TrEMBL record:
Similarity annotation: Belongs to the prokaryotic molybdopterin-containing oxidoreductase family.
Identification of the protein by name: Molybdopterin-dependent oxidoreductase
Pfam families, A to Z: Molybdop_Fe4S4 (PF04879), Molybdopterin (PF00384), Molydop_binding (PF01568)
Coiled-coil segments: none
Length: 755
């Protein structure tokens, strides 16, 4: 019997903090997981989720083999050949009868955290698109779509945006983010909370604007409670005060680099602190004090995240965060809001192939049923259900979900849950039989996080240092199991007409890689522009995601540029450093490189954004007696899918309605009892947790719950089901410019259960 212990250094693939872990293994079992103190990026930081990757790997409910749904509606485990044959049997008639216009793909959140999926989702969506698929869906429109719109228009790319230089700022205002739970979002730093503590230790200030006194607010200098959905009013008022007091900074380094600051300031005119006070719930004097604090600080910065995106004015708010950062002279300056320098080039940083004009276009086509205009290629996620269940030409009859659980994560969840059984073909690439995949005719599971190589790309765009890391698999996968990138290529080729079981995956991989290289050579502004795609292909070695990762590293700022810069980095060079390579720290002075707008300047004014201001003006005097519902996250949850990990489920019930004691009293509900919450979308019974951490008038529910559904295989999660907050979130309330759903600030009533 072997009892030798092996020591593996890997990066946790669960969230944007990208922590380095040390995994000790004996006899094919995880002995322990702790933070890797030698990791050049995270230096030992980790959270409770990272330590449970062993339980996730060993979860008996995790699928190791495909499942097929029988005529009795029950899923049975089958071999891969049978699963591929069944996928073909389901997909082909739809594609033959209606073509790919009856097909859609749902791209879930873990795709961005999984090298295999992130590298090849473009192959699936691209091939299905080439075959005629009209649109794909993602939770982007319940997440960061406002940031994508603002990034595109102001900075020139969907994923371009500056981040706070956490190590050097002395005054940080955080709106709608709770890094104590999320560990940072569109802001990658190991230990964000440690950074906040350091800011205060340096004598600086951290202000948290949030309707809830979160654990982040608890550790800030000041908590400013705000009525959900009104941050844009607050920010306009702050901008107006800065201008009126002569506190707009026009530093030399931004001269000639920004268009539209004066127009933006002029737009702030109607928004006096007095006028927005009632709507925001913030006294005019407090607004003035926040503005004065920013004006007086040496290095002030605003940072915002999901609470300011998934709300009524997500785009205007996100836009104003950057406008105010510009007005403070903070952008592109050390100690300000700076553009990170990712060491890896990702195809995600390229323009989508359908955006060919000088300016990005929005609203180019509309959804079939609701007539919603596309924004950056997507409709609001809630369109998916109606596109499936509404008869007629162009109805979605086949759906491929990839690492997504929209039955839980999409507003209008009830309709989607009822629509999915109407599909003629539903294929889920997923590792669990859960609330969404229980509807799938075929489930094709991927490997566990410890069985696959890992490396991140997108998140380095928002990272407080430039690093490269590569993780080898801790465990070898079972022989004969396809990797997820192979599954995606197979399904993509199927959309183009090749029977699923007959796809030559290696040939498709070469074809996809060649196509990508051609696009990079043709498109202006990529590291391959003007080069020869054949030569580029010949310079690469390996297959699959490793080949693409090699490409990304070699085309990055420290890369060997596929041979043009001998001695530059390659994947092999990175592999030789299991603790990673730290190449640069954040700094200012990157604007010219990072901003890719047509003018090359930060372009603040766009009708697509500013046309929404009248809607905001209408909001100022709106009053309502209703409470409003908001969302929250917990450190030991990860959206809907870590609730089957026993170690993460210990402790008190987390799926509770947080409500201020005064509101609880008025509603006639009590701590520990049940409440009925009713919105225009429906009604739910939920355990009550009273706390003065909620501002009066606002209640909070976590998302990602609502387990315990028949036909699922999630023993631990189903024992703690909770309720699905998206049964309460309506489909018709959206942030107009970005198509983003409002899950923060939904009018609701709370009452005691009948009887
Ligand atoms: N542990 C854990 N980490 C995660 C996740 C998880 O589920 N669990 N999910 C990951 C994902 S997918 C994402 S997108 C990120 C999100 O990361 P964050 O943006 O940090 O997300 P939340 O923790 O939900 O914090 C949002 C905050 O916005 C507040 N809020 C609600 N409405 C408003 C409003 O109108 N105005 C203001 N100013 N604040 C408001 C809420 O009270 C809440 O405190 O987290 C990621 N990290
Ligand atoms: N009310 C409300 N709704 C929200 C939010 C909110 O704050 N409030 N937040 C929104 C946000 S920010 C997000 S990102 C979405 C998340 O929405 P989704 O992406 O739809 O949902 P997740 O819960 O992340 O589900 C992940 C799925 O991936 C599967 N999975 C996990 N690991 C793997 C893997 O390695 N391979 C494969 N193939 N599958 C895997 C899981 O089994 C699960 O089915 O929810 C959104 N919905
Ligand atoms: S913070 Fe936790 S979940 Fe996120 S990468 Fe680090 S260990 Fe993993
Ligand atoms: Mo997200």
């Amino acid at each position: 019997m072997s009892s030798e212990v092996s020591d593996h250094r890997v990066t946790c693939p669960l969230c944007e903090a990208m922590c380095g872990l040390r995994v000790l293994v004996r006899d094919s079992r995880v002995l322990s997981i702790r933070g890797n103190g030698d990791d050049v990026w995270s230096r030992g930081h980790l959270c409770p989720k990272g330590t449970t990757l062993g339980q996730l790997h060993e979860d008996p409910d995790r699928l190791r083999m495909p499942m097929v749904k029988g005529g009795d509606g029950v899923h049975r485990t089958v071999g891969w050949d049978e699963a591929f044959a069944e996928a073909e049997r389901r997909l082909r008639p739809v594609l033959e009868e209606d073509g790919a216009k009856a097909l859609s793909v749902y791209v879930g959140n873990p795709v961005a955290h999984n090298l295999d999926l992130a590298s090849y989702i473009g192959a699936l969506v691209g091939m299905a698109g080439a075959a005629g698929m009209p649109a794909y869906y993602s939770p982007g429109t319940v997440d960061q779509w406002p940031l994508n719109v603002v990034g595109t228009l102001l900075f020139g790319g969907m994923w371009n945006a500056p981040i706070p230089d956490l190590e050097r700022i002395d005054h940080l205002v955080i709106l709608g983010a709770n890094p104590a739970a999320s560990q940072g979002s569109m802001l990658s730093a190991p230990d964000v909370m440690g950074h906040l503590a350091d800011i205060r230790r340096r004598g600086g200030t951290v202000v948290v604007v949030d309707p809830r006194r979160t654990p982040t607010a608890d550790r800030a200098t000041e908590w400013v409670p705000i009525r959900p959905g009104t941050d844009a009013l607050l920010l306009f008022a702050i901008l107006r005060i800065l201008a009126a007091d002569g506190d707009i900074r026009r530093p030399a380094h931004l001269e000639g680099k920004v268009d539209g600051l004066d127009e933006a300031i002029a737009l702030a005119d109607p928004f006096t602190a007095e006028r927005v006070s009632a709507a925001t719930g913030i006294e005019a004097a407090t607004i003035r004090r926040i503005a004065a604090g920013l004006a007086a600080a040496q290095s002030p910065v605003l940072y915002s995240r999901i609470g300011t995106c998934t709300q009524e004015f997500g785009t205007l708010t996100t836009w104003l965060v950057f406008v105010v950062n510009v007005a403070l002279g903070a952008v592109d300056r050390r100690g300000g809001a700076v553009f990170a320098k990712p060491a890896v080039f990702s195809p995600m940083f390229m323009r989508p192939p359908d955006q060919t004009g000088e300016r990005w276009e929005f609203g180019r086509f509309r959804s079939r049923v609701r007539g919603a205009p596309e924004v950056l290629g997507q409709f609001p996620l809630s369109c998916l259900a109606e596109e499936i269940d509404t008869p007629g030409e162009g109805r979605i009859r086949a759906l491929i979900t990839v690492a997504g659980n929209p039955v839980i994560s999409a507003p209008g969840a009830r309709r989607l849950d009822m629509a999915l059984p109407k599909l003629d073909a539903m294929i889920a690439v997923d590792n669990w039989l859960n609330e969404t995949t229980r509807h799938a005719h075929v489930i094709l599971p991927g490997l566990s996080p410890l069985e696959r190589a890992h490396s991140d790309d997108l998140y380095w765009m928002y990272a407080v240092a430039s690093c490269l890391k590569w993780s080898e698999p801790v465990f070898p996968p079972d022989p004969g199991r396809p990797a997820e990138w192979e599954i995606l290529l197979r399904l993509g080729a199927a959309a183009l007409g090749v029977p699923v079981p007959e796809v030559d995956v290696a040939a498709m991989d070469d074809m996809y890689t060649t196509g990508l290289l051609s696009a990079m050579c043709d498109q202006p502004g990529t590291p391959l522009t003007g080069r020869d795609p054949g030569e580029a292909f010949a310079a690469l070695s390996g297959v699959g995601p490793a080949r693409l990762a090699d490409l990304g590293i070699r085309l990055g700022p420290w890369g060997d540029q596929l041979g043009l810069r001998p001695g530059g980095l390659t994947l092999d060079a990175v592999r030789a450093h299991p603790d990673g390579l730290r190449l640069a720290e954040l700094d200012g002075g990157r604007l010219d490189e990072a901003v890719t707008t047509p003018s090359g300047r930060i372009e603040l004014i766009h009708p697509w954004i500013t046309d929404d201001i009248p809607r905001l003006l209408d909001r100022i005097d709106r009053t309502s007696a209703d409470l409003v519902l908001t969302s929250r996250r917990h450190l030991r949850s990860n959206n809907s899918w870590l609730h089957n990990v026993p170690a993460l489920m210990r402790g008190r019930d987390r799926c509770t309605l947080l409500i201020h004691p005064d509101d609880a009293r008025s509603a006639g509900v009590a701590d520990g009892g049940l409440a009925v919450v009713t919105t225009s979308a429906g009604s739910l019974e939920i355990p009550v947790e009273t706390s003065d951490e909620m501002m009066p008038g606002v209640v909070s529910l976590p998302h990602g719950w609502g387990h315990g559904r028949p036909g699922t295989r999630l023993e631990v999660a189903n024992a703690h089901p909770g309720v699905n907050s998206n049964l309460l979130n309506p489909v018709d309330v959206i942030d107009v410019p970005s198509n983003t759903h409002v899950v923060n600030g939904v009018p609701c009533r709370v009452s005691a259960p009948a009887g």
